[in-house]
Amino acid sequence: MAVPIYAAAMYLSYRSAAQQLELGAERDADELASRLAAELDAVIRPIEGGIRTVAAQLEEIDPPREQYEARIRGILAAWPDVYGSTIAVETGSAHAGSGPFAPYLFRRSGGVAFSDLALDSYSYQTLPWYRRAADRREPVWSSPYFDAGGGEIWMVTYSVPFYRRPADAPRTLAGVVTADLDLNWVRAAAQNAALGPIGMGWLLSPPGQESFVAPIGATAERIAAFDASITEQTFRDTGERMLASGATFELVRGSTAEPVYLAVRGLETLEWRLMLAIPRAELLADARALLERQLLLGAVGLVLLIAAISFVAAGISRPIHALAESVDGAREGAFDFRLPETRRRDEVGVLTEALRRMRDSLQRHIELRAEDLAARARLEHELAIAASIQQSMLPHGAADAHPAGARVAAALLPAKQVGGDLYDYFERDSGLLFAIGDVSDKGIPAALFMASVSGLFKVLGSAGELPERLLARVNERLAASNDACMFATMGCGFLDVATGLVRYASAGHDQPLLLELGGSIEPLEAENGPALAVEAPAVYPLTERLLAPGDTLVLFTDGITEAAAADGSLFGLDRLSALLRDGAGPGSPDVLVRRIVAAVTTHTADFHATDDLTVLAVAFAPRGVTPSRSANGEQWLIEPELSAEGCREARHWLRQILAARRVADGRIADVELIAEELLTNIVRAAGEAGGASSMSLTLALTPAEIVLTVRDDGLEFDPLARAAPNLDVEIAERDVGGLGIHLVRELADECRYARSDDCNVLTICLNRSVARREYAT
Amino acid sequence: MTLKITVDQSSTPTLKLVGRLDTDTAPQLDGELTKVLAHKGIKRLVFDLGGLDYLSSAGIRCFVRARKGIEPNGGTVAIVNPQPGVRKVLDIVKAIPAKGIFASVAELDEYLDAIQQQVRDEGKELDK
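^ Those are the sequences you sent over. The predicted structure of the assembly is below.
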């Protein structure tokens, strides 16, 4: 990365330096031209001044002619560059003193020679050097000319007119003072100018005059070194154009070779031009050399830089590599990796120190986490124990542990390890006391409160309290010391297994569902008292309901009905009812409970259970009565022992069952009477020959009918075949026998006898609600 | 389910039955009847069934037995105040003639007073 940046910087620097150098070279060339022009002007300007001074003196003093020569000698003495000088007087004017007079002094052979231009029949007043000054009435320079008759040299002449102002007369021309300038001097001066190996130039007279060219270093070879398309004339034309436009410097391009700089100056004194032509390559040669040297140095620097960077980088990367290897061990969880010792104070040292701090803090973190995990494991363990203790508070109802006359099943699924739901049941006073409860809140507080409720229920329940009183007493105890403001709902019932009567009281709990043998479902309409531990004293209304054998009371907590599926739908009472209706056969609460738990957990699927689920099912199952479902109703098989006691028991169950099904009292009495008459006959005949050894009774209920079927295994005997007694004969003559069968026939809507499986089977049908006839008084 | 029997031995001997009269309790009533019928010359026996909930043929036999014990001597057995269910059974079996069954004690008293008038000459007529 550093290398290209460095190279780019170098290139930009080179470009900038080259531009600067080029600008410098251009300036140098321009300045050279200016300097040369100024040097020439510096020689010429004093001469101009001197001649004008002489002219002014002549005007002012008007010395006699004899003194002219002395003045001319003074000029030659003062300016060695002046070759010759004259003071030529005007003869054409009115005030002219005498005839032509033009003494000319000039250098020859190291001395000064004299020549009178007038004497030499030299009609000087017509010559250009005189005429132009006289006519223009100002100092003028002549064009270059070759002095063929005089010094045999190229020269230019500076002519200054002077005037007289005689009294009462206008100012008139008196003569012209001249100085001849040897142009060999110009050539020498030009040749002294240095223009490098191939630079060259010219000092030129302006175009249109006698052409004089003083080459400055220009030779035929040098011109040839330029582009062939660029000639001397090209330069001169370009130079003239430049002067016309006021430019002093220009790059002249030929068709092929290097372009050429052309610097042009006009002299301030003489109307001459100085032109310098320098090839661009030559002008920039030094600059190029300098730049190339810089480039070389830069390249060397770059190489050195790369080497230095590599060296420094290696110094950093090696320890970093070592660090990386050390830290790599941490990937397998070994956070106690060793770090290399270092005293470095650079970034590597800082990094190592940072890693050391990280490692140490990681180790501390791991230790803390291990402690945390241990603490959590302890807590989990304690919770597990708590859960097991809590589970042990619940009755573990194995089938054989069920009390006589009832079957119970229950399930409790805590949402957390320990829960706030509870259920309990135990046998007491020929009955079953049972309860279900739901403590507010969840987790450990709820579990502790649940334990307290559960304990009170056991103690007070065992003491013989019935549900309504039991709840009131449990409530009193809980409310008295309820600083935590917990509360619990509870449903509590007592099933009298001798009668099927349930006494139920509720402390704010959901109404249980009563599932009848035939599958119909209705809530146990129990009036609620306040939840436990809320207020004391509280009254818990008693609800009584008679169960028929095979009926099941299902108690549950709201964890069942409010179990939510992932889509938010609750399990609900309707689902629960439907499940019970289609559910297990009669008297199997354990199957019922399993089905409910399975349905609820299926409903919630993977969705986290938010509340404890508890369900308790109590089925009434007295000994000697076998409930079953029939095609269109319910039926109970009663198998009493063959005795008066057995008859009593059978009649008792008939009465209870019919009462539980809310059959009218009159009908119940009819059915009981029929049963009594028939069973009594069987029992009475049992002691005789051909008597039965067992009997049974089946009560079947359909929506319309009550059907009683009595069986005995005695000898074939159809009681219906016996003629009806003659009730109108005198009482004293009547046989009391046959009254029972008569009663049966009269009360029943239909009687049938059949001999089946070696048994006498008597079937009696009664209309369920209406007696066949009423016997008015 | 039991039977409670109260025996009133005042001017008109009355057995007040409360509860159920069936196979199980009939022997109990039989025992009382035995004692009551032991008094020779008893002319009237009244069963007050106001408290009787249930009556089966075993009970009816007790009534028949009472009639057999009293009526041959010109006596009378009456039933008072039967509940509808019991009345229904009595009606079916016709163990007691309809004119011997009274809805209330007042009705019975009125009837007995009428009997007093005829008892001398029409003693046998009561059965018809």
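Chain B is about 40% helix and 25% strand. The longest helix of chain B spans residues 57-70.

Shout if you want it in another format.
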